[in-house]
Amino acid sequence: MPQTGYYAEGAPTPAGPYSHGVVANGFLYTAGFGPQDPANDHAIADNVADQTRQVLRNIQTVLAVHGLTMDDVVKSTVHLADLADFAEFNTAYEEFFTAPYPVRTTVGSQLANILVEIDVVAAFPQA
């Protein structure tokens, strides 16, 4: 199966040896993104709502390289540092998606000095 990894200009610098996204088999898979400001790679804000918005803006940047939007996302995986923040996270998350919503898995995770990390899978439209 051919796959193509890429880096998106305007997205935060990867913290390790990984691509921002990989295209394979009609899908685009993103890396997990935190709330880093691409201008300086530092996490923004100290609340989960604002961090969620920044994460999703970072993901939008990576999707846009291939002409995709949040409407093309079919699955997301969310890591929250504290599951007690779920309601605040969910309100911010919903601002970026329209029905039918992508499927989603949300788990509690130990995160390194951030409150939320998200990765998505987007499907390329059928021609």
TrEMBL record:
Instruction: Name the InterPro entries on file.
Output: RutC-like_sf, YjgF/YER057c/UK114
One Pfam family, please name it.
Ribonuc_L-PSP
User: According to the lineage, what is the superkingdom?
Assistant: Bacteria
- UniProt-listed PANTHER family: 2-IMINOBUTANOATE/2-IMINOPROPANOATE DEAMINASE RIDA, 2-IMINOBUTANOATE_2-IMINOPROPANOATE DEAMINASE
Q: What is the designated name of this protein?
A: RidA family protein
Please name the source species. Microbacterium resistens
